[in-house]
């Protein structure tokens, strides 16, 4: 279909691109123009739904999607758009049903297959996603994006040899495919094949010698546990997941630590007269549960997209792009009454500098509240989980760091989240500064 037979095609495609770039006002102008040309074009309402979802109004987004469906009730692309939004909002049974319906109506449509793959991935149905991917690759063997995703899924399922075969196919087609090299490296590290992984990290560093992320993985491939993860390692991951982060983490993984810690802060400061520094604030879940304080609520994070989501909550007095090490170094002494670091230490690693730095920034009597994944007491002080790439901390060591910094320590064992249906064991330390 071209512009002469479909005057809205260019407007719709441009609006979708603008929505993905979060240029919502510009997208709205194009959609208004498209609606003037074709008032009953269902795509206008579908794109308006995407735009409204991106703006944070999920209920309004579904209403617009429903209007689009009413205009084209049996149109597979419309059904798939709804399915993908349902998956993003953790409405997984409905999303899977709609995706299957759309695909059954037009099984040969590659765009619909792509949508069904997305829905299966978001819903945690890896086997279903891999079935769709294999079907797609039979039709389009050169589709590198699908092959990469298949390889990642196979690796996640610990089918390492099959995953490596997919990475090797990609590298045969393009020997300097950085994504394939990185994927092969991750699979080899997860499989414990460190020598082979070191060969890949050497190749990556030869292509990009100053890359801090490659240097980090090279250290791991040589059997070392780096003290910290470079900020670049997680920034892209969190940026890409920011718009669905809350649904996936809170609903999908049952992550309730911000709510629990907000309740703890209310007990410690019932009048909410405090200055609070939220390290690694993410989308601002702690601020959402705590609400406005009679003081200053400051958030910092390494991800610009996460900070955008936090800003929409309207409860933080300041939000800055920074990591916790730089923030604590640059913050004046005795500036805050409470410092939180929730689901941050798993990426920060070595806390030997973090804890005393937090003590310097806290006012007398202030509290540092941090969470860690639990490492074995009989093992080293800091370990990396090869399956998740996150740090685990020995509880007694972190408690010792807090006491050495002058804190009185209370520790509570807890389940941080659930992954693949299994609880992730952790602990929350509330460290009180003297004074």
UniProtKB/TrEMBL annotation:
Keywords: Methyltransferase, TPR repeat, Transferase. The keyword RNA-binding does not apply. It comes from the Bacteria. It holds the Pfam family TPR_16. SUPFAM superfamilies: S-adenosyl-L-methionine-dependent methyltransferases (SSF53335), TPR-like (SSF48452). One of its GO terms (biological process) is methylation. The keyword Protease does not apply. CDD domains: AdoMet_MTases. One of its GO terms (molecular function) is polyprenyldihydroxybenzoate methyltransferase activity. InterPro entries: Methyltransf_11 (IPR013216), SAM-dependent_MTases_sf (IPR029063), TPR-like_helical_dom_sf (IPR011990), TPR_rpt (IPR019734). Residues 277-370 form the Methyltransferase type domain. TPR repeats lie at residues 42-75. This is SAM-dependent methyltransferase. It comes from Pulveribacter suum.
């Amino acid at each position: 279909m071209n512009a002469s037979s479909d005057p809205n095609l260019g407007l719709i495609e441009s609006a979708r691109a603008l929505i993905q770039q979060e240029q919502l006002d510009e997208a709205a102008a194009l959609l208004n123009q498209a609606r003037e040309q074709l008032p009953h074009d269902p795509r206008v309402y579908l794109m308006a739904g995407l735009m409204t979802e991106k703006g944070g109004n999920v209920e309004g987004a579904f209403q617009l999607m429903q209007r689009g469906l009413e205009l084209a009730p049996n149109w597979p692309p419309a059904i798939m758009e709804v399915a993908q939004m349902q998956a993003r909002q953790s409405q997984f049974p409905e999303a899977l049903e709609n995706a299957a319906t759309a695909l059954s109506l037009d099984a040969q449509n590659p765009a619909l297959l792509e949508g069904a793959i997305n829905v299966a991935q978001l819903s945690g149905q890896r086997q279903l996603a891999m079935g769709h991917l294999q079907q797609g690759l039979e039709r389009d063997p050169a589709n590198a994006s699908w092959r990469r995703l298949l390889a990642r899924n196979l690796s996640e399922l610990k089918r390492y040899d099959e995953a490596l075969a997919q990475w090797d196919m990609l590298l045969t087609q393009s020997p300097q495919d950085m994504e394939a090299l990185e994927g092969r490296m991750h699979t080899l590290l997860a499989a414990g094949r460190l020598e082979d992984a070191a060969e890949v990290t050497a190749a990556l560093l030869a292509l990009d010698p100053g890359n801090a992320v490659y240097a980090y993985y090279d250290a791991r491939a040589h059997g070392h546990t780096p003290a910290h993860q470079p900020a670049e390692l997680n920034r892209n991951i969190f940026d890409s997941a920011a718009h669905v982060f809350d649904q996936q983490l809170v609903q999908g993984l049952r992550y309730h630590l911000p709510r629990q810690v907000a309740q703890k802060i209310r007990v410690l400061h019932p009048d909410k007269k405090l200055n609070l520094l939220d390290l690694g604030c993410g989308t601002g879940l702690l601020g959402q549960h705590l609400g406005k304080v009679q003081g200053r609520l400051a958030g910092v994070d390494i991800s610009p997209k996460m900070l955008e989501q936090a800003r929409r909550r309207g409860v933080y007095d300041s939000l800055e792009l920074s990591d916790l090490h730089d923030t604590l170094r640059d913050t004046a002494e005795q500036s805050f009454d409470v410092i939180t670091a929730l689901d941050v230490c798993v990426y920060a690693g070595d806390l030997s500098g973090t804890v005393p730095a937090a003590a310097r920034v806290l006012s007398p009597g202030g509290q540092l509240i941090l969470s860690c994944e639990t490492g074995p007491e009989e093992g080293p002080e800091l370990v990396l989980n090869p399956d998740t790439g996150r740090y685990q901390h020995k509880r007694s060591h972190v408690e010792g760091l807090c006491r050495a910094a002058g804190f009185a320590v209370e520790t509570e064992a807890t389940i941080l989240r659930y992954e693949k249906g299994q609880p992730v064991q952790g602990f929350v330390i509330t460290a009180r500064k003297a004074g």
